[in-house]
């Protein structure tokens, strides 16, 4: 099977950045296939990029090479990494800024190296485009068969930059679930870090009515809403709120054919939320 390289960036597609990276890769390994994962990550949003990788990487084959360049610290002393995971032998190349933290936790580490061997970099290098001049060429060499151990010294995973994740979701003794907003998707759905297992622990059942309140970062509590727990968006009328467990096993607040985030005024990741099962409370 030909080597596959997936590109994830915050570059957009209007400028030449993505094309330049592809050219640098193909100049070294013209037999590889390049897959555009996304170039629409919000500028400088490391959290969004890290969650994107975590959500999609399990659907790609063993040995797939992920090149993730969301790099607000480009040109500084921050390290660049190449990771081979333990459970799926996938390869990830990215700056050491927390981007690979969720993947390392999910798949484990077989080998992690710091990119320091200039032999696998472009000779002419810009201080502001390491995706084209360092990480892209490294990905191409890996695709061509170079062992990642040759790319630089092995490093201890515990020394890498950790992602500043929001507080973990939890279930209180009275069944109240607390969690945090991870991101807003392109439909305006509010994606949280609450999982199906926590709804089960709290005794929440399908079609129960849930009371949801948001606590903005340092800005007090926003007005809450009540919404039923459903399996699909179309189980409620157009414009109506609902909650569901999405395809990533995350609790989501949505509006059918509408933006929940816009109507609720939720604009940022990290906002805390509180979920109570109104149906259970009324039945007591």
Short structural summary:
This protein is α+β, with helices and mostly antiparallel strands.
Furnish the topology, listing elements before pairings.
Blueprint: E1 4-9, H1 17-28, E2 33-38, H2 46-56, E3 65-69, E4 80-85, E5 91-95, H3 101-107, E6 109-114, H4 130-143, E7 170-171, E8 177-184, E9 190-195, H5 196-201, E10 209-216, E11 220-221, E12 225-228, E13 241-245, E14 250-255, H6 260-264, E15 272-277, H7 278-283
Parallel strand pairs: 1-2, 1-3, 3-5
Antiparallel strand pairs: 4-5, 4-6, 7-8, 8-9, 8-15, 9-14, 10-11, 10-12, 10-15, 13-14
Structure description:
Helix 1 runs parallel beside helix 4. Strand 8 and strand 9 form a beta hairpin. The chain has two domains: 156 residues, Rossmann fold, CATH 3.40.50.10790; 114 residues, Elongation Factor Tu (Ef-tu), domain 3 (Beta Barrel), CATH 2.40.30. The protein has 284 residues and is an alpha+beta fold. The longest helix has 14 residues. The strands form two sheets. Strands 7, 8, 9, 10, 11, 12, 13, 14 and 15 form a nine-stranded antiparallel beta sheet that branches. A six-stranded mixed beta sheet has the order 2-1-3-5-4-6. It is built from seven helices and 15 strands.
Question: What keyword list fits this structure?
Answer:
Elongation Factor Tu (Ef-tu), domain 3, 284 residues, Rossmann fold, six-stranded mixed beta sheet, nine-stranded antiparallel beta sheet, 2 domains, single chain, 15 strands, 7 helices, alpha+beta
